[in-house]
Amino acid sequence: MREQQLLSFVRLGKVLLIIVMVYLVIRLKAIWVPIFDLLFTAITPFAIAGFITYLLHPLIENIHERGIPRVLAILIIYIMFFGGIGYGLYKGIPLFIQQLRDLSENLPGLIETYKGWTKRIHNETSAWPEDIHERIETLLVQAEQSVGNLLTMILNSLKGFVNSAMVFALIPFIVFYMLKDIEQIKKAVWYLTPKRWRSRGIAFLKDVDESLGNYIRGQLFVCLIIGTIATVALWIAGMKYPLLLGIIIGVTNIIPYFGPIIGAVPAVILAATISIKMVMIVVVIIFVLQFLEGNILSPFIVGKSLHMHPLVIMFALFLGGEIGGIVGLILAVPFAAVLKVALLHVKAQFSNH
């Protein structure tokens, strides 16, 4: 009886200690939040550089295995990758800024067109049952808020990118040294990892790489192709802001199932302000792009590297969208793939005991 009371006091003491610690963390927020922000700012370029290194490393190994010196292989892929990005930014940023400025100047006219649509919808549905009419009004308000939030997020992202331009300028140099000294980095991580975790950690990372690596590389390549084709097709069709819309279509295409729909909405809305004919042309372009992506590019380039059921992917997308919006949708499938590998390893570990 006395031992049970002692255990109860110990548990109560632990709970109180946790409550006190949480309270202190909250009260000291003014101290640790700036430190956290500073660490996040410092780590961000290294995290991005690490991701780029992860994407490029297999290509370098492939070239190196063909008898080309490793340093030369690194220089070839490095120059092709960052040279291509630099040339694209050099040619694309002025055009992107011009189209963004043009869009902002024409925004009042687009808003008037949008108001005309909503007024027409309001008048045509006024005779409908009150409940249905209110739901349509609610959907219109929610759509307006979603578009406003999306534009705000894009503008804030651009502003943050410009403010952090000097930090991001370091990424190519970090990537070069990471690619050059990848073996030393592996050895450092190996020695820093506790011995009892090493074999399991290597097996886990190998399975994650097999499940996720080819998917990410292939999906990014497919998105680049789809975005490029969309930009060219919209430009040939005479659509306004082809580069902006092509970038949106390419970026959102990384989201399985729902990405093409999300990417098509801005293009169709802008086309509707021009003519019905332009809407039909844009819809045909979107359908052709999705046929190309779903039946040729993705099966050939991405394949079925994830080994996940479509229902699991859809559930991950719904959950990611609810938690993190567009960013959550983009990260949902990679996170689900890593979680799947982690659960399989945990299951295997418990089965061995």
TrEMBL record:
Q: State whether keyword Cell inner membrane applies.
A: no
Tell me any Pfam family this protein matches.
Answer: AI-2E_transport
List the GO terms this entry assigns under cellular component, sorted alphabetically.
membrane
Q: What is its main location?
A: membrane
Q: Where in the cell is it found?
A: Membrane
Q: Where are the transmembrane segments?
A: 12-32, 38-59, 71-90, 160-179, 220-237, 269-292, 312-339
Q: May I ask which residue range the UniProt record assigns to the signal sequence?
A: none
Q: How does it sit in the membrane?
A: Multi-pass membrane protein
Q: Which GO terms describe its biological process?
A: transmembrane transport
Keywords of this entry: Membrane, Transmembrane, Transmembrane helix
The record's family statement is: Belongs to the autoinducer-2 exporter (AI-2E) (TC 2.A.86) family.
Please report the name of this protein according to its UniProt entry. Putative PurR-regulated permease PerM
Source organism of this protein record: [Anoxybacillus] calidus
Which taxonomic lineage is given here? Answer: Bacteria, Bacillati, Bacillota, Bacilli, Bacillales
